[in-house]
User: Which sequence fits this backbone?
């Protein structure tokens, strides 16, 4: 099912972005490893050129129109500045002197930014929805790796999974051994907001 919270991800095998060295909207160097179409938008899976804690490659996602190269500016420039502008407009709406023009400007900018703000979220959840026990996951908050342990029945299939049970790699458990005190088998339930499937890229 595809709604505002979930989406289907379809690989784009002939995308001109594949294999390119790029810079994301935060200025981080990366390489495009996969491109998917999600809700009509092309979203890239990137591996960072910055080293991850356990020697792998950090994974993230980005709408292709926010990516730049040495000789190509982003198709949608100034994304970070526009996000700041959106926050300022939202704050203005809470002031007693907010005008209808403020409200219209906020709605227009929010609609313009929506495909870019949620592209990574929708792709990540679409890919996680395809994950099966034994698949490898990258945990963005800690630069850790884990293996998907099991899946519940998840009866609300029109909603993204918000948590998954994973078995942390031994290197992660060595880094924070206190986890084993509460979870001797190394199996924990974590929020999916911190997860990316490795897609055999790592």
Assistant:
């Amino acid at each position: 099912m595809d709604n505002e919270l979930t989406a289907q991800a379809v690989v784009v095998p002939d995308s001109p972005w594949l294999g390119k060295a790029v810079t994301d909207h935060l200025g981080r160097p990366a390489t495009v490893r996969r491109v998917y179409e999600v809700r009509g938008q092309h979203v890239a899976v990137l591996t960072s050129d910055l080293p991850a804690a356990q020697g792998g490659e950090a994974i993230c996602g980005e709408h292709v129109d926010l990516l730049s190269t040495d000789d190509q500016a982003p198709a949608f420039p100034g994304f970070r500045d526009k996000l700041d502008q959106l926050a300022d407009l939202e704050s203005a709406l809470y002031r007693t002197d907010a005008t209808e023009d403020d409200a219209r400007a906020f709605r227009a900018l929010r609609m313009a930014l929506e495909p870019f703000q949620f592209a990574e979220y929708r792709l990540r959840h679409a890919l996680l929805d395809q994950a099966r026990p034994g698949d490898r996951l990258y945990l963005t908050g800690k630069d850790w790796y884990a293996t998907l342990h099991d899946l519940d029945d998840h009866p609300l299939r029109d909603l993204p999974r918000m948590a998954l049970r994973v078995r942390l790699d031994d290197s992660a458990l060595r880094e924070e051994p206190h986890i084993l005190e509460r979870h001797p088998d190394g199996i924990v339930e974590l929020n999916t907001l911190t997860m990316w499937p490795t897609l055999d890229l790592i």
In short: The mean pLDDT is 87. The longest strand covers residues 41-51. The two ends are 29 Å apart (CA to CA). DSSP finds five helices and ten strands in the chain.
